[in-house]
Structure to design on (295 residues):
């Protein structure tokens, strides 16, 4: 069995360490296990690199030449792209206070030098496995994704009484640029809640709402309830859209600076069991539901 097979899948690790011997050893070791590895020796370089490559895990030394690892961690947690990236602190400090500081800032583990490289290997592997499991749920809405959706699609295709209804949000990227990603994410959560409530009303057992990607949602519903579900969704989403905007912007139909209001819209699609593509590919399923509409 190859090292790559042992470690399950190639993932990207960013090593932030200014000691050349330690960084070279970690880079070579994890590369030999099949991981993709990048390295930064300075805190500012680590911040730029992390934002660019979006690593799956960061091994972060606390003692760095410019800014310390605590500051790097705080900045990573403040960035939307890297706020959930798992971080292992690497340091010579052994005081309980220092460990608590790292954990309080959001590190998932804390390893002191000198360390056992095999122990480091297993800690990295276990953290990445937990992260992969969590990625089955969308980080904003908490809705199932990926394999969990595939399981449901197989259930629909083998049961003639079920079907799939989908909702695709349009115009969300422009909205996020205008109003910020906190409001943008609040809308995603609100839409997820609307879908959950609607499915709970029409499905007497095993209700399911999932997320194909950031702006595409699906629901598994009884085929006999499709028109009821789609009608309620259309009404509720139409009513909700105006509440997503500041009242004054919505009333005048433009932003405060006079530029056009970035309008959110939605598209509802539906597939019966016999219309679902044979290959349970989520991209193909999205195209079947919504066609090629722009996001």
């Amino acid at each position: 069995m190859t090292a790559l097979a042992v470690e399950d899948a190639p993932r990207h690790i960013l090593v932030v360490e200014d000691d050349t011997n330690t960084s070279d050893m970690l880079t070579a070791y994890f590369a030999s296990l099949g991981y993709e590895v990048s390295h930064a020796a300075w805190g500012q370089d680590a911040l730029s690199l992390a934002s660019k490559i979006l690593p799956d895990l960061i091994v972060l030394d606390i003692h760095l030449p410019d800014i310390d690892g605590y500051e790097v961690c705080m900045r990573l947690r403040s960035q939307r792209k890297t706020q959930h990236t798992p971080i292992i602190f690497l340091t010579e400090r052994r005081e309980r206070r220092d460990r608590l500081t790292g954990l309080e800032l959001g590190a998932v583990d804390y390893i002191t030098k000198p360390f056992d490289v095999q122990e480091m290997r297993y800690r990295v592997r276990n953290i990445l496995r937990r992260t992969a499991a969590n990625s089955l749920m969308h980080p904003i809405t908490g809705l199932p994704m990926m394999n969990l959706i595939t399981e449901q699609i197989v259930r629909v295709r083998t049961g003639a009484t079920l079907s799939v209804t989908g909702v695709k949000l349009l115009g969300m990227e422009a909205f996020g640029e205008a109003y910020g990603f906190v409001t943008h994410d609040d809308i995603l959560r609100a839409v997820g809640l609307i879908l959950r409530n609607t499915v709970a009303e029409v499905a007497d057992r095993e209700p399911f709402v999932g997320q194909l990607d950031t702006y595409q949602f699906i629901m598994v519903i009884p085929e006999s309830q499709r028109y009821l579900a789609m009608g309620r969704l259309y009404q509720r989403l139409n009513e909700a859209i105006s509440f997503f905007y500041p009242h004054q912007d919505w009333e005048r139909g433009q932003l405060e600076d006079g530029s056009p209001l970035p309008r959110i819209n939605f598209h509802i699609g539906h597939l019966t069991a016999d219309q679902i593509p044979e290959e349970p590919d989520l991209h193909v399923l999205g195209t079947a539901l919504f066609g090629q509409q722009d996001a």
Notes: Residues 242 and 250 are 7 Å apart (CA to CA). Confidence is low (pLDDT under 50) at residues 1-8. The two ends are 43 Å apart (CA to CA). The chain has two domains: 3-134, 146-290.
